[in-house]
Amino acid sequence: MGAAIQPADADIGVPTGTADLALTWAAIAAARAEQLTGVAHTVDVERVLAHVLLPLLVGDEAASTAPRAAPGGGFVHTDLIFDDEPLFAAITADHPDAGAEALAALMQECRLPVTPYRTMAATDAPVPPAGCLATGRTSVARRVVPGDITIVDLTAMWAGPLCTMLLAEWGAEVVTIEPAARPDGLRNSPRLFAALDRGKHRLDLDLRDAEDRIRFEQLIESADVVIESFSPRVMANFGYSPDELRRRNARLVTLSLRAFPSSGPQRGWVGYGRGVHATSGLGLLGAVPQPVRFAYPDPIAGLVACATVFELLGSKHNPSAVEVSLAGAIAPLLAGGERPLASGDPPTVERLRAAVGVDPGSPLRPAWQAAASPTSHRPTEDSSAG
To answer: What's the per-residue H, E or C state across the chain?
Structure first.
């Protein structure tokens, strides 16, 4: 048997410490699940690393656009579809002196996912995950049986679907709302979509339709958690703000996944994982952009969100709403300062594929699932996110 895969081996084209951060949050999630259920949970290291590298593992890596120079200086990252390009070109032409920050702000006014590449000096103070999770400790006021928990899943792409897949594999009932009129964009990467769709029930409900709204509201009445990844205004525009959902079900908690914290200057911005990397301060080395191959903030945020749900389920007095942002999830990586992206060990992808396949499932292993494996370990009481 070959040597065990090291976390640094999986830092392939991402900031140093990415895999370690994922393992830290997986350990926190396992500790929360153990406290919540009274059943021992271990973490399968190889499966955590497989989720960090999931697009490479399944061979379904979405192409990333090259950094674009802003006319007034600096660079922006764009996650545009073909139909967005004429508007991007028109705004750029109309503002020939706009630097990266100004250009990104103009694009965001038109709801275009354009973000500036920033140095650490220009980056806003990072907002790490809040509450007890920051130290990896929490108090548990109640025990739960996973099969008694219902999660309503209104997420798409990677971070949210990873979180809800972990909860489904843990044993919760996960009902994913996906209207046919607006399918999950991750379906464009079918192998990635399949790996994150395990154990879920899908309902075709359009929250703009009166009959579908009735079915959704009936579902909410018996749910424990709603997880959504819309931009901040969407749920309120549907009439389903956290307060309104709580009015329909007093025990319900809403977890919102955002690109950027709603308390910061980028609140309401449209963005995805690679765009969050660009703005983080990790996207520039000197004045040279460092784009990443895949959206590594997503699996980190998905693990943070899962750990947060476990904490909320164990709390006696839940807040009506909590938030996890991709920017906050990767904030601990900034402690290493400006540095080149890590090269890792590219053959690690093949080694992980041989070890766990292309459908790695959950790395959180309850005692009834955990196999005797040298890559599994028990979380420690002082696990922390950095």
So the answer is: CCCCCCHHHHCCCCCCCHHHHHHHHHHHHHHHHHHHHCCCEEEEHHHHHHHHCHHHHHCCCCCCCCCEECCCCCEEEECCCHHHHHHHHHHHHHCCCCCHHHHHHHHHHCCCCEEECCCHHHCCCCCCCCHHHHCCCCCCCCCCCHHHCEEEEECCCCHHHHHHHHHHHHCCEEEEECCCCCCCHHHHCHHHHHHCCCCEEEECCCCCCHHHHHHHHHHHHCCCEEEECCCCHHHHHHCCCHHHHHHHCCCCEEEEEECCCCCCCCCCCCCCHHHHHHHCCCCEECCEECCCCCCCHHHHHHHHHHHHHHHHHCCCCCCCEEEEEHHHHCHHHHHHCCCCCCCCCCCHHHHHHHHHCCCCCCCEEECCCCCCCCCEECCCCCCCCC
Q: Choose among 301, 294, 302, 328: nearest CA to 15.
A: 294
Ordered by start, the domain boundaries in the chain are: 7-62+125-262+291-377, 68-116
**Residues 7-62+125-262+291-377, CATH architecture:** 3-Layer(aba) Sandwich (3.40)
Q: How far is CA 259 from CA 175, 232, 300, 301, in A?
A: 23, 10, 12, 9
Q: Over the Cα atoms of the chain, what is R_g? A: 20
pLDDT in tens, the chain (386 residues): 567 899 999 999 999 999 999 999 999 999 999 999 999 999 999 999 999 999 999 998 888 889 999 999 999 999 999 999 999 999 999 999 999 999 999 999 999 999 999 988 766 655 555 444 544 445 556 789 999 999 999 999 999 999 999 999 999 999 999 999 999 999 999 999 999 999 999 999 999 999 999 999 999 999 999 999 998 889 999 999 999 999 999 999 999 999 999 888 898 899 999 999 999 999 999 899 999 999 999 999 999 999 999 999 988 766 778 999 999 999 999 988 889 999 999 999 999 999 999 999 999 988 866 544 444 454 443 333 33
pTM of the model: 0.91
